[in-house]
Amino acid sequence: MTLLRLNAVHAGYGAVRALRGVSLQVDQGAVVALLGANGAGKSTTLKCISGMVHPRGGSIEFDGQRLDGLSPHQIVGLGVAHVPEGRKIFKDLTVTQNLRMGAYTRADRKGVARDMDFVFALFPWLRERAAQRGGLLSGGDQQMLAIGRGLMARPRLLLLDEPSLGLAPMIVASLFRVLATINKEQGTALLIVEQNARVALRHATFGYVLRLGEVAVRGPAWQLRDSRQEMLDSYFGVERHIVSPRPCATANASPGSARPASQEREA
User: Fold this and answer.
1) Is the residue at 256 inside a domain?
2) What one-character DSSP code corresponds to residue 135?
3) Would the N or C end of the chain have less CB density within 10 A of its end CB?
4) Domain range for 170
């Protein structure tokens, strides 16, 4: 079932048009990668979903309810959490205080305590630094803290903006293993904005590539991994390859599509 749906969303900043009719969907429990070059509109798409930017046209629906026009506070309450680019943790607050800030919309103390334990189980090194100020953590630990803070809202959909930015390859691999655990154990759907297309598509079920505020390519993640030339052309704006000729990579492909088991292989 579809959890999130964007229908021809337009958005911008002043006279700048950042999104030009973006349509995409995220199914319940899915992992969807949102790819594209700098300035393609990826972060703006997430900000529209979380209420930080109000669309100028189109609609955004979450579990059948319209999000466009709601405040970020209301959207978090519906089950959407946003982990922004650059982590944006509270550097003067401790690790524990940062996590509690993620649960500010909740009143169930026992549930908050259980989720705190779940976050510390995912990131045991955060438990060791529970009383340490966020600003003193390494970049990788700050990213883990930002994700943990998002999980404290107990979201059904977690939006992640460039989670691997500035991190060493080993930290990135560990991070995506944790994201896979979150998806499988809690059933949380993930919409991941990434520059590292290879890593994102290895862990995603479906992918979209934005170019200049429009969806240039879409399809099952395995299909996009195999269509390397189409992916590169969509990044750099070569018109003849914007839509892959393969059926599964066209606008008719479903985000729930999966690669046949016989064709599975590592990217």
Assistant:
1) yes
2) G
3) N
4) 2-79+155-261
End-to-end CA distance of the chain: 28
In-domain check, residue 39: yes
- Take residue 65 and report the two structure tokens written for it: 């309810």
Secondary element (H or E) of residue 21: strand 16-27
Mean pLDDT per 10-residue section of the chain, whose length is 267 residues: 96 94 97 93 96 96 94 94 86 94 87 92 91 90 92 95 86 90 94 90 94 94 80 57 39 48 39
Q: Among residues 149, 246, 231, which one has the least CA distance to residue 197?
A: 231
Residue in 69, 199, 50, 221 with CA at minimum distance from that of residue 209: 221
29 Cβ neighbours under 8 A, 6+ residues apart? 183, 187, 188, 189
| Number of domains within the chain | 1
Task: State the pairing for strand pair 65-66/57-62.
Answer: antiparallel
What pLDDT shows up at residue 74? 94
Q: Where are the alpha helices (DSSP H) in 34-165?
A: 42-50, 72-78, 95-102, 109-122, 124-128, 139-151
Tokens representing 89 are 């943790």
Q: Are 209 and 234 in contact (CB under 8 A)?
A: yes
Whether 57 is covered by a domain: the verdict is yes
Cα-based distances in Å from 266 to 45, 89, 198, 199, 202: 29, 34, 10, 11, 7
Q: Residue 165 has what pLDDT? A: 83
Does 94 map to a domain? no
Whole-model pTM: value is 0.83
Q: Which helix (H) or strand (E) holds 28?
A: none
* CATH, residue 15: 3.40.50.300
